[in-house]
User: What shape does this take?
Amino acid sequence: MKKVKTAPPINYAKLIPPLKDWHKLEEVHNQWLEKCGGNGAIARSIKLKATKGLFDLMPMEIPEEDREKIADELFRNIKLGLTRSPNRDLVTPKISDFRYGYSWVAWKRAAEYAGAIKLNDNFTQICKMVKTSCEYAANTIRRWREDPSFFAEFCNQLRGTDKIYPPLSDDQPDHQEDNDRLSGVTFAIQLTISNAHELLIKWTNLLDRLNDLKQLGLDDDWEIANKQVKIKGLFKENYREARQTLHLTSMFQQMELQFCFAQGRGKEYVVETSKWREEEESCDLEFAGQSNFQLKMTYEKLRNISYVDFLLASLYQFRDINGNTPSRDFAHYFLEFEQAVMADPSISEVVSSYVQNLIGERAMSHEMTSAMNRFFFQNMSVDPVEGYSVSEKQKAKSQCHSYEIFGYRIPSLLKAAIEQHMTPELARFVWEEFDSIAMQKHGDSVGNLLGIAEFLQTPKPGWITQKVELEDTCFPVTDTPLSISDIQHEKEEAITELDTDQTSQPFKVNNKQMKLVRKLFSKAEEEDGRGQVKWDDIYKLMKRIGFRIDEAGGSIVKFVPPNEAGIPFVEHRPHPENNIGSIRYRAFGKGLTERYGWTREWFERVIKEE
Assistant: This one.
């Protein structure tokens, strides 16, 4: 029987001009409009012909004036050759498809520009996206708390990156505890810790609102759901709070990226404003995702000075000197940035690993917002919090504060700042001191005070005994604590046997890769517990086991188990280096033990049984 070759996946990015050239083509369009008499009858007539049938593809719930705006925008792009008309025959991308090096969110935007029809997510899928984000944020905090060596290395890597200012100079005596630079070091680490907890709080608040809607009986069908959330009462109230919380979370991430840019490589392009002095104006800016930094020039001027910094500032949605934000959204500049990196790989080195991770997290919330907009037919241009009073904004803002627990200046952080180095011992003291402050000042543990104790519990190792139907979510699915998982048919004991019926291939690990396995599951005092390993070798090992590996954006990578029978998890690939040190690779092995119960002895037994 002749084997039929499978056609390669469509490269949507090849169907549109590189995004770097779009602004040049738009100049041509503006000149054409002038010849047609602006938005006069000639231009209108041509637009109607070019967009004929477009209204039929739009949901009737979209107001006519918004439909006309969408039609005008689409026509403008089609006229320029930037995007293509919606085409029902163009295959919609799937998360498991080969993506030619693009991350999922950027690839979906390329498909959209190429004309692929977007598919709506259902409400259950949206809930799972949010739950994934909760678990992902919780996993970061758990790893910091449970692995002092890992947290110490993380703090030390922040020095000299986009997050922390340069080290102390020799002429500054170490004993000056009130030295501005010492205060800055402790503040930067405290802010990083606080932001991680606030992000988890925001995700859990959103999950609570969505669960409330589910308990009220919100339908998975978009037509019914859109009618339900318009009904006055609990449906409408919980829906509005959910949209508000998601919006706040996205803007919180956006402001953190702006802060990193302003403190790091973008320092010469921004200026600190005084617009946050008034509390009311502060709330408005925070709801708009604007920090107290803005560009001190126009975007066009910044493009001429540094294209890379133009992309980063656009990605972070800064206001320019005239108060204008970029003309397009996050996903557009995310795609353009990835295209720029493909053309010149050295560009990726200008963004630290920490900031790449923040970009990946921002991509997760952007896709969540897009999914909500598609399901509830709320266009991206519509402000989900428009018309809210200042008191409502302040209430929503206060709900996500971490009770100022991490604002106290603790001895361990001060000592690390003076010594310009965080040790594992000091890292352990950091969490002990914050836990002590929480108990002494507020009478309870950090997790209970912030309402996140459930998510900070270490997950039990286990393996799903039936295939999990994973939806086309945009971002990585992290290790899910099985004790709070809504997935049925699960085992809580460690894996001792591999059900080959549930996997696409047995765990085939060759002798050479067993050397890597021994290093992953080693202890610090062992010979295998020292040195470095190549990140590419970990990729090859996990692929040989049968995992699918997806780039999700920034430095976030998702590992999906064979046949999607186990709980997927995420890791942060090293950047820009390919090697990872002993602390990181032992943490990777520890994660495999926590999730699946795997050990070095388990792998050795599996090889002998083959």
